[in-house]
Design brief:
The complex is a heterotrimer of chains A (about 300), B (about 350) and C (about 280).
Chain A lengths: L3 H9 L2 H7 L4 H4 L2 H22 L9 H8 L1 H32 L5 H26 L5 H9 L12 H25 L3 H9 L4 H29 L3 H5 L10 H10 L4 H27 L12
Chain B lengths: L7 E11 L2 E12 L3 E5 L6 H9 L6 E6 L2 E2 L5 H4 L2 E3 L11 H11 L4 H14 L15 H13 L5 E5 L7 H18 L2 E6 L2 H7 L2 E6 L2 E6 L1 H6 L4 H6 L4 E10 L2 E6 L2 E7 L5 E7 L5 E2 L5 E10 L4 E7 L4 E6 L8 E5 L6 E4 L1
Parallel strand pairs in B: 3-8, 3-9, 6-7, 7-8, 13-20
Antiparallel strand pairs in B: 1-2, 1-4, 4-5, 9-10, 11-12, 11-14, 12-13, 14-20, 15-19, 16-17, 16-19, 17-18
Chain C lengths: L6 H32 L16 H9 L2 H32 L5 H13 L2 H15 L5 H25 L3 H9 L4 H30 L2 H6 L7 H10 L6 H23 L6 H4 L2 H4 L1
The chains are: A mainly alpha (about 300), B alpha+beta (about 350), C mainly alpha (about 280).
């Protein structure tokens, strides 16, 4: 391209043709409206929020952040959110693996996947309302507990940590499971057969073949599940104790914005929320790099 | 379990159902130590099912498998100690060539030094010393094939199973690897069961060929026997007897005479003496001759180097594949005939 | 696929199915509670309500102005589906068919709104929309909902377009079809199944999208799911059965469209988008 001939040619060829040679023609421009939209309504608000978070209502440019980390009512939300999101995600991922390994052998998977997609589709608000009834002191679950004789009085399962925990399992487990299943079914079954032919028992096959091949997918599954659980909002308000145990970080951000009308502070909390998520995801992806990443297919990939 | 010192592998009435479908109907077969047996048949004949049953990847629905006096069909695949080369090689993509080959030995918990030595030998055997540290994704298809073979044989299994191992390679590489597989088999002498749909591959590699059709054994024999004397018309068709002419057979001395249109051919009776019959002739055996009994008109002909091969029509429209040393062209009238020993006559 | 018949393997398999069964049982019981309660006259401390009635649906319809809410929901969902198709499909076509400088950056730009949870980017987005005066109106809600759905459509459509042989388009051009005619006669029929699947998924997701709508909606621009949230939030003000009647209306709406969508897409696609097919 930089040769003299190239220069000569580019001197004569119309601009349109030269751009087309670099892949910029009418078809490429079709991407522009969507890109402009995302820049305008995702990137710009994010940058705007970041800048706004450094323009507090009062005090220096770091005042919002200083206030957040000085006020226990605010900074403890990080710990409370992690205390919900991490155990739930670990549980969902750990339970998903053996179940997905089993379900992949099923011929009629579709019925199960359809049932599991229902809570994801219904969303957290509906699940929260359902669990308020179901887990409540007069709900069916407590009736079963009383009937069996597990406990003499109804077990308190709502308006506390466990209510939110259960709602995150109900919506989070299907999400985690379906992701895990799609990664597991992407692994060529003949690899496991080859392992068996070479004398590897079920446990060895899992450790030596399935787990290393599944690991990159599991990390991504964990990240996506964690990020979802970390941003829990409606069920923390409806099913939890929004002023106590389940005062998660999104509640703090929401209250700053829509109850105190302090958009600057709200933006700062949103940025902290994003930062914690990025930190955890980055740590996990770093961990993944220590392992193999590559095609999970046969030799040719 | 994993010793080469077995005398024979016996399949007794080995059967496998898939729901209503019978994939394998009572296969009986004995494989001797060191033998190279090819399971040959068209796709869907049950040959891959048979191999998977042998491997332990599919449970049998009836029958049994014996290694000498030990019954093995109830063992899981990892307990049988067989080697297997998969159609898509099934190399572990996250392990280097060396790790792939050493996998079986590691599972047997052999000492490190022994593993290293045996893997080195196997690498040398398949000539992949230079590729030892690469990942499977970084080497060519032919090299992946060699790794798959090395991985299967390094544990010195009593039996090696190969599932159409050459079907993913191009024609030139296929010939090369065919010679390679034969060389390794001659060197190590472990019994091998080789599944293929390619009769050339089976003929050139195997000591014995088992022809399967619809889940049943149709014929077992040496390559020579199968080539020269298929026992059934369908086996003959599969082995390259492209001319299968429906006719009536009449006993004549040691042979039979069959009526082909107006002509009369003399042939060898395989399983019929009189009555409705099929005359089977290879295209290369049906040649123009001055006193040939069959009058036909050439429809198409192509030069294949040395000889011409073509398609001719008889007056009644019967199509015949033939060979000719002299140039022939569409429209030529020919008289075709075949050596009576090369005309096989089967019951229809 | 190796199946084992040993005792340990059977116990393991049984344990797995017990867990799945327990989960599904609780899930169905939770949904059943809502449905049963919505038809209950009085349900206090018994297995089943004293008697059944349908009057809560009439009262929920009036109390929560469900007609207005449903109209708003339909308007929002319709506009989001249409606009995300119009913005997303051409962009996916360009991404699938052209290599251009900065393509990776564009891909990252498309992935980000799907990876960042809505509540995180929703707060700054709502702030900007309030400054611009769009928040509180139906257009604010539509714009906010488009942020994840446009990338979603692009991601689903890219592999779908890639698997259509570009030579089909080339052939159409060789036979003299202009760009517009090629688009109408060749591309649209080929892309229709993919577009249908993508837009149905957008539809289901938008009905259930709580966070973005919640952060940007005003009193007159609430969708069903946000109205349901406020009703549950203010529980005690109204009869629980009335709230559950509304919840059932919401469930029926969502699941109806989910059923329609599942005729065209695989359930796992709702979660995995197009990741698996992407390579």
């Amino acid at each position: 391209m930089r040769s003299e001939a190239g220069v000569l040619i580019s001197g004569q060829v119309p601009l349109r043709v030269r751009l087309a040679q670099r892949g910029l023609d009418g078809v490429t421009l079709l991407v522009l409206p969507a890109v402009l939209f995302i820049v305008g309504l995702f990137i710009y608000p994010f940058v705007y929020g970041l800048v706004l978070s450094f323009e507090p209502k009062e005090g220096g440019w770091l005042a919002n952040y200083a206030k957040f980390f000085a006020d226990p009512y605010l900074y403890t939300t990080i710990g409370k959110t992690l205390w919900l999101a991490v155990p739930v995600t670990v549980l969902n991922v750990l339970v998903s693996i053996p179940i997905a390994l089993r379900v992949r052998l099923m011929r009629r998977q579709r019925l199960l996947t359809t049932i599991l997609v229902v809570p994801i589709t219904l969303g957290t608000v509906l699940v929260a309302e359902g669990l308020l009834n179901y887990l409540g002191p007069r709900g069916w679950l407590n009736r079963v507990i009383l009937t069996i004789g597990f406990s003499d009085s109804p077990v308190r399962l709502i308006h506390n940590y466990w209510g939110v925990f259960m709602s995150l399992v109900i919506t989070g487990f299907p999400f985690t499971f379906l992701l895990t299943l799609s990664y597991i079914t992407g692994i060529d079954p003949s690899l496991e057969q080859a392992g068996a032919m070479l004398g590897a028992r079920a446990r060895q096959r899992f450790r030596e073949i399935m787990l290393p091949l599944l690991f990159p997918g599991l990390v991504i599954t964990f990240c996506l599940s964690f990020v979802q659980a970390f941003s829990v909002f409606p069920s923390a308000v409806l099913l939890g104790a929004p002023a106590g145990d389940t005062r998660v970080i999104s509640i703090a951000a929401y209250q700053a914005a829509f109850e105190d009308y302090d958009y600057s502070m709200a933006s700062a909390i949103a940025m902290i929320m994003a930062f914690v998520q990025v930190l955890i995801v980055a740590a996990l992806l770093g961990l993944q790099n220590a392992f193999y990443r590559g095609p999970a297919g046969g030799g040719k990939g | 379990m994993s010793s080469k010192e077995f005398r024979q592998l016996r399949l007794e009435n080995m059967s496998r159902d898939f729901g209503l479908l019978n994939a394998l109907k009572g296969v009986n077969l004995t494989v001797q130590r060191g033998e190279f047996v090819a399971l040959l048949g068209p796709s869907g004949c049950g040959k891959s099912t048979a191999l998977n049953c042998l491997a332990g990847l599919l449970p049998l629905t009836a029958g049994s498998i014996w290694l000498d006096e030990a019954r093995i069909d109830l063992l899981g695949p990892e307990a049988r100690g067989f080697g297997m080369v998969f159609q898509n090689y099934a190399l572990f993509p996250h392990m280097s060539v060396r790790k792939n080959i050493g996998f079986g030995l590691r599972m047997q918990r052999r000492p490190k030094a022994e593993i290293a030595r045996k893997v080195e030998e196997a690498l040398k055997l398949v000539r992949l010393e230079a590729q030892a540290e690469k990942l499977p994704g970084q080497i060519s298809g032919g090299q992946q094939q060699r790794v798959a073979i090395a991985r299967a044989i390094v544990v010195e299994p009593p039996l090696v199973l190969m599932d159409e191992p050459l079907s993913n390679l191009d024609a030139k590489l296929r010939l090369e690897m065919r010679a390679e597989i034969r060389r390794i088999h001659n060197l190590l002498g472990c019994a091998t069961i080789y599944v293929t749909h390619d009769q050339d591959e089976a003929l050139s590699l195997a000591d014995r060929i088992v022809v399967l059709r619809d889940g049943q054994v149709r014929q077992v024999g040496t390559p020579e026997a199968l080539y020269a004397r298929p026992e059934h018309a369908d086996v003959a068709e599969f082995m390259g007897y492209r001319n299968l002419i429906a006719s009536r057979a009449v006993r004549a001395g040691n042979g039979v005479q069959v009526r082909v249109g107006d002509a009369v051919l003399t042939g060898v009776p395989v399983d019929v003496d009189e009555g409705e019959a099929l005359a089977a002739i290879r295209p290369e055996d049906l040649v123009p001759m001055a006193d040939g009994p069959i009058a036909a008109t050439v429809m198409t002909a192509e030069y294949r180097g040395r000889d011409f091969y073509g398609l001719a029509n008889m007056a009644d429209g019967t199509e015949l594949f033939f060979r000719s040393e002299a140039r022939v062209a569409a429209g030529d009238a020919l008289r075709l005939g075949a050596d009576p020993s090369r005309v096989l006559v089967y019951a229809q | 696929m190796i199946r084992y018949t040993s005792l340990g393997a059977k116990l393991w398999a049984t344990a797995v199915w017990v867990i799945v069964g327990f989960f599904v049982l609780n899930l169905l019981a939770m949904i059943a509670t809502v449905v049963v309660n919505s038809f209950a006259t009085r349900w206090l401390g018994t297995w089943l309500p004293a008697a059944f009635t349908t009057r809560w649906y009439a009262s929920a319809w009036d109390e929560f102005q469900l007609l207005d809410v449903l109209i708003v929901t339909m308007e929002v969902v319709g506009a989001v589906v249409l606009l995300s198709g119009l913005l997303g499909v051409p962009a996916a076509y360009a991404m699938a068919r052209r290599e251009f400088p900065g393509k990776q950056l564009v891909m990252l730009l498309i992935l980000l709104p799907l990876l960042v949870p809505p509540i995180t980017f929703g707060i700054p987005l709502a702030t900007v929309l309030y400054k611009a005066g769009a928040a509180g109106t139906i257009w604010g809600v539509i714009l906010a909902n488009l942020v994840p759905t446009v990338p979603f459509v692009i991601l689903i459509m890219i592999p779908f377009i890639q698997q259509i042989d570009p030579r089909v388009e080339a052939a159409a051009r060789v036979f003299g079809a202009g760009t517009l005619r090629m688009f109408i006669h060749v591309l649209v029929p080929l892309l229709a199944p993919g577009i249908l699947a993508a837009l149905l998924l957008v539809l289901v997701r938008t009905i259930a999208m709580f966070e973005l709508t919640f952060l940007t909606a005003g009193p007159t621009s609430q969708t069903l799911v946000v109205a349901l949230y406020y009703a549950v939030f203010a529980a005690g003000v109204r009869a629980g059965q009335s709230i559950d009647a509304m919840a059932v209306v919401y469930m029926v709406t969502t699941l109806l469209w989910l059923l329609i969508a599942l005729r065209f897409v695989n359930p796992t696609q709702i979660v995995t988008r197009a990741k698996r097919e992407a390579h």
